[in-house]
Amino acid sequence: MKTFAEFGLEPKVLQAITELGFEEATPIQSKSIPIALTGSDLIGQAQTGTGKTAAFAIPLINKIPTSEDRIVALIMTPTRELAIQVSEEIGKLTKYKGLRSLPIYGGQEIGRQIRSLKKRPQIIIGTPGRLLDHINRKTIKLDDVQTVVLDEADEMLDMGFMEDITSILSLVPAERQTMLFSATMPPNIQRLAAQFQNNPEHVSVIPKQVSAPLIDQAYIEVHERQKFDALSRLLDMESPELAIIFGRTKRRVDELSEALQKRGYSADGLHGDLSQNQRDAVMRKFRDGSIDVLVATDVAARGLDVSGVTHVINFDLPQDPESYVHRIGRTGRAGKEGTAWSFVTPREIDHLHFIEKVTRHKIPKKPLPSIAEAIEGKQRVTAERILEFVQEESINEYKGIAIQLLEQYDSVNLLAAAIKLITGEKKDVSIELTPEDPIRAKKRRPDVRSNGRRFSGGPFGGGNRSGNGPRGRSEGGRSGDSRGGYSGGSGSGSSRGGYGGSRDGSGSSSSNRGGYGGSRDGGGSGGGRSSSGEYRRPRQEQ
Ligand SMILES: Nc1ncnc2c1ncn2[C@@H]1O[C@H](COP(=O)(O)OP(=O)(O)OP(=O)(O)O)[C@@H](O)[C@H]1O
Ligand SMILES: [Mg+2]
Q: Which residues does the UniProt record annotate as the domain DEAD-box RNA helicase Q (predicted)?
């Protein structure tokens, strides 16, 4: 493992890294920072939560002179929340160097962004739709951009951002550094690479299993109508510090967050139909812990880094294995452990197997917790809370009444009644959710071209690379590794991976994203087969 001092970075950048508490570089950082510092194009793949943001941000920041007053770096993300988050991380990393960075995303008042642009930021972090708006208004000019990063590169392609990205990149000088990052690199990422990059170096620290290994994964078989009670039981039994619950549709998210609130949980919902103010408020509450359950569509699946997320629950299975990997990757980040459970209806078992196959990870089955277990869990948590109070809180003013009560009543009865009172907070209101259709097992065409092996590539890289692809950088060099170019196990023992992002209802006035019906095909190929033979369905805005 390398220290950041080994990269020969500017002292002011190093100082900011130290202040962030990063002691050693993560594997993706160790491998990509030296390459990125040379100015070479790069494709970086590593599991969720392993520091890909700093892997591209540090070299980018290091090379911008403080005296620069033009936009020289452009980072694109698929969602607004991710643009904001990346911008904040860049803000921290540029603290001592004093560069100016600005997030540019849909839903925020454009006049305010125009005013901020007058302060001449050197780094722009944006979602494609709103970036194009500014370009058309000539409030953003890309003539001087030297570095471009596509964070969640595969998602950008998948969401049908290709057209916007193509227009944006046609305005950036060809003489530039272009970096693509994601935890998942489906083979059709080659198209992005071939179109926008110049002989990229390939850096991958994805070992066999693409999902981050610190995540304890399991599935629970439930019928659609049992899901809500199952969720309540899980939440009671586990009492997550922070949890993200993924639902399939915006309606589902609305209904579910409302139902959880009715039952007394501290929950709120996030999806692309909310106003940006609402989205910001929900994220703020989740980040500061004033709610502890975030219910979200796939808009929260990618990239979001919220510390303290101990649980991810797929209330509905995601359509794509990629989405599964990114969703569960909201926990188990930066070396911490996490728990990810998925509800699977009997008709979705085949789809689950498909996810297992593509992610190369068997997801064990777990029984639905019984009511007794849920109650026991709640009681245990209450008892723990009481003990914390005994140790930490000032309870002197309650002692008088406690002594009085103890003189009259039995101590066990008193404490049992108190525990019942506290654990009984959740209201037993009955909940009806609109049922969602089961996800049908989707047959993604196995990649059979390399050695005739099925799933040799999978959506996460490797597999065959045809002629003009980037040159593979097979780290770990396991010979005979059928995953080829992209994969290359790190062998470094650090198998934590990348992160995820979220999805932008980018709110560009010139596009139809952001609401229902903003259906865009995966990469402009009419939603059919992409050049790599992968089937990509048209996807709706989340
Ligand atoms: N070298 C480091 N040492 C300690 N913590 C780090 C280091 N680099 C990054 N982190 C922290 O790890 C967390 C995850 O980083 P980041 O969000 O960049 O992951 P990612 O690989 O982009 O994940 P995803 O695929 O989900 O987007 C962040 O909280 C970040 O501050
Ligand atoms: Mg990330």
A: 2-30
Residue ranges, CATH 3.40.50.300, the chain: 4-204, 215-371
State residue 476's pLDDT score: 30
Give the residue-averaged pLDDT of 135-139.
97
Q: Write down the CATH number for the domain with range 4-204.
A: 3.40.50.300
- Report how far apart, in Å, the C-alpha atoms of 185 and of each of 75, 85, 205, 206, 333 are: 18, 22, 12, 10, 19
Q: Which residues on adjacent β-strands are paired with residue 74? A: 124, 148
Q: What is the pTM of this model?
A: 0.82
3-state secondary structure of 487: coil
pLDDT of 342 strictly over 80: yes
Q: What is the C-alpha to C-alpha distance for residues 152 and 149, in angstroms, rounded to an integer?
A: 9
Dist. CA 459–CA 321, nearest whole Å: 8
Quote the CA–CA distance of 507 and 491 in Å, as a whole number. Answer: 43
For a substitution probing ligand 1, which of 287, 307, 499 has the most ligand atoms within 8 Å of its CB? 499
Mean pLDDT, to the nearest integer, of 490-499?
31
Quick one: 177 exposed, middle or buried, by C-beta within 10 A (0-12, 13-18, 19+)? buried
Confidence of residue 385 (pLDDT cuts 50, 70, 90): confident
Calculate how far, in angstroms, residue 496's C-alpha sits from the geometric centre of ligand 1.
10
Mean of pLDDT over the chain? 82
User: What is the 51 CA–ligand 2 centroid distance (Å)?
Assistant: 7
For ligand 1, what atom is nearest to the CA of residue 334?
12
Q: Which residues line ligand 1 (CB under 6 A)?
A: 22, 24-26, 29, 46, 48-54, 183, 303, 305, 329, 333-334, 498-501
Tell me: the pLDDT tens digits for 53-102?
A: 999 999 999 999 999 999 999 999 999 999 999 999 999 999 999 999 99
From 305, 326, 502, give the residue whose CB has the most ligand 1 atoms within 8 Å, as the site to mutate.
305
